Amino acid sequence: MQNQPDFDTLRARLRDHVVRNKLKSSTRRELILETLAAMGRHITAEELLRAVRDRDARIGAATVYRTLRVFQESGIVIERRFEGGATRFELVGDHHDHLICTVCGTIVEFEDEAIEREQGRVASAHGFELHSHRHEMYGVCAACRKTQQRKPQTRQ
Question: What span, in angstroms and rounded, lies between the C-alpha atoms of 79 and 86?
C-alpha cells in the first residue's frame, strides 16, 4: 500500500486551500476528512457518506460530494475511475499502480521500479516528456480464482 500523508498534513493542506480560496471553515469538512483518512482505501462517495453519517447523521450527500470536490482541488484526494466500476477516491500519497479484480472489485496497490523505468524508456523513445501516468491491470485475484475452482461444473 502507498505511503499516505498523516492526518496533520492533510488537515494543514485543507486549511491552506480554505484560506487561499477564501472559503469558510467547516467542522463538517474536517469530520469528512477524518473519516476519509480513517478509512484509508479506495472508496466511493456513497461509502464515505455512510461512514460519515455513522458519525453525524445530519450530514447530507450534497455536503459529502461538495467536500470531495474541495479535497480534489486541494490535492488531498484523487478521483479514480476504474473500468467497470464506480468512481472511487483515494488519498494522494506516493505514486503507485493498481491491480483490479474484475470479479470482486478488490484493488491492490503496488510499486515496481522496473515498470517505472520501462515506462520512462518507452516515453523517451517516442519523444515524450512524461509528466504523469496511470497503470491499471485487470484480472482475477487469487481468492476469486480459488472460489471459481471450487464451483462444480454444470453439464449441458
Answer: 11
Beta strands 77-81; 87-91: pairing state: antiparallel
Q: Extract the C-alpha cell encoding 120.
A: 520512462
- Closest Cα partner for 20 from 29, 8, 12, 30? 12
- Where are the chain's structural domains? 7-90, 95-150
Over pLDDT 70: what percentage of the chain? 94
- Report pLDDT digits (tens) over 80-115: 887 777 788 988 877 788 888 989 888 888 888 898
Q: What is the DSSP string of 22-73?
A: TPPP-HHHHHHHHHHHHH-S-B-HHHHHHHHHHH-TT--HHHHHHHHHHHHH
Which CATH superfamily hosts domain 95-150?
Ferric-uptake regulator, C-terminal dimerisarion domain (3.30.1490.190)
Range 7-90 has CATH code 1.10.10.10: yes
